[in-house]
Amino acid sequence: MTRPLPMVVPPTGLPARVTIYEVGPRDGLQNESAIVPVEVKAEFVRRLVDAGLPIVEATSFVHPKWVPQLADAADLAARLDLEGAVPLPVLVPNERGLDRALEAGSKHIAIFGSATQTFAERNLNSDLETQFAMFEPVVSRALAEGLDVRAYVSMCFGDPWEGAVPIDQVVRVGKRLLDLGASQLSIGDTIGVATAGHVGALIDAFGSAGVDVDRLAMHFHDTYGQALANAYAALGKGITTFDASAGGLGGCPYAKSATGNLATEDLVWMLDGLGIEHGVDLDAMVEASAWMAKHLGRPSPSAVVRALADRATD
Amino acid sequence: MTRPLPMVVPPTGLPARVTIYEVGPRDGLQNESAIVPVEVKAEFVRRLVDAGLPIVEATSFVHPKWVPQLADAADLAARLDLEGAVPLPVLVPNERGLDRALEAGSKHIAIFGSATQTFAERNLNSDLETQFAMFEPVVSRALAEGLDVRAYVSMCFGDPWEGAVPIDQVVRVGKRLLDLGASQLSIGDTIGVATAGHVGALIDAFGSAGVDVDRLAMHFHDTYGQALANAYAALGKGITTFDASAGGLGGCPYAKSATGNLATEDLVWMLDGLGIEHGVDLDAMVEASAWMAKHLGRPSPSAVVRALADRATD
């Protein structure tokens, strides 16, 4: 038997090509309990680039007190090719983080806002309205230095304290982050409560507010098993950038279960079946994720990685 | 914090109500390595009925040599209310199985055909063409006895030996099973290789061949993480019956990974968010599946069960 493959049957009305924005090394590893050695992280990023991913978020210049898993950000950045053809963005929480990113030679940064008051208070030590004043100097300095800026907005579908989040509130926050000068807005379902209809309605609302769908990325978590169905619904609304995490690494510390990000491999499998181009070599991805799962000492949460890595060891 | 809930946002064009056909006690447990005591199975079926499931496939009258997990079928049937308001179908592989089902007092049976030659040879000891002759006396006798008959057709998207399965071949086999007198055809992705576009194309092909969509059920496995996305695609094609397995119990013995059926709870979560009625109490389902996971001595494969059962024990 050869490796199983999905039959390619493209439905009508979906994009011909999408960009997978890989978040495993940052969003994935920051939510794993294990501390991964910096040389393993550097090798992981190189393997992901070699697998054909067009962009790989490498780390975060957040204070090590908050995210000890990424305390080696400067050391990791020094080991990576930040001038290479594949952008390796880093998250910066504030001006101090931007200083460190600039010192490291980063060309692409991401900021991380909140769609809800409570998460802005708890995670950003800020406020739904005052967060923009906090990000403004970060973005304007970054742009002046010639950097590209992506904005994340988290808790876009539900919040563990506030429950369901009003769609117009998410659109308002997202637009303000874009207006600061971000080139792309990543719409995050941080606690994984989105379902397909809600996803479609939120994308439609951004469209009605004048935001081009090409500036939106979707960032799904699989806490309730919905991530890939939500991605399919988003494809139907014309979304062409999807955040995904190699091997399904990570998970939101505020969610009660251990389930993490949408797995890159499960997304790639679906895109392959839909005939949508993405440029990623699935076998190389599975190998990289199975290798990282061994370093973490547990099976990959990705169904595709489990199925195909099992196969490889038959 | 109260239990998280998806925000209800119904997209246009989906069915208002669906039937969840629960397969956990049969398709789930027959693919678990553990042998579950008959009294635990009976309690499990009762809990699933109490959770509001409209139909629960209870067991299979297959020869115990092939499926030792279900060797207690007659004993289990004797402990269940086969005359109750909720149908409790049983799988019957052949005339001997039908005899046993009739002795047990079953009112609803299911037969299990193959869309491919190789699986018909290996699983049915038959043939793609001769399987119908094998099923004909089973179905005609069952109908004469006043029983309702469902037909499964397996390997509808891919087969581990033959690869991708031609859509017209699946439609031809499925139609012949319906023509024997089955009231419903359950279209099975036995090895989990279906993707959303393939699902839609197969449903469309049945429609073009004159089969009413109301006679079709979809049966997805999550081997490559696609089950729920495929269910969402099938909803968009008007499918109103979905097979699902409590807690994601089971798995195909021919697939290399351990991932099993679409989890009932993950489907219920999506349907709740889509505003589609189904009649199932999610909390009662999670409780029943967490209880069974304890009997099996391992965590539930269902993301919803893991997330909500973790919560309950905080």
TrEMBL record, chains A, B:
Gene Ontology annotations of biological process type: ketone body biosynthetic process; L-leucine catabolic process
Gene Ontology molecular-function annotations: hydroxymethylglutaryl-CoA lyase activity; metal ion binding
Organism domain of life: Bacteria
Assigned keywords, A-Z: Lyase, Metal-binding
Pyruvate carboxyltransferase domain mapped to chain residues: 18-286
UniProt keyword Protein transport present: no
PROSITE patterns tied to this protein: PYR_CT
Keyword match Lyase: yes
Gene3D superfamilies reported for this sequence: Aldolase class I
One Pfam family from the record: HMGL-like
InterPro entries membership: Aldolase_TIM, HMGL, PYR_CT
PANTHER family per the UniProt record, alphabetical: HYDROXYMETHYLGLUTARYL-COA LYASE
Name of protein: Hydroxymethylglutaryl-CoA lyase
Native source organism of the sequence: Solicola gregarius
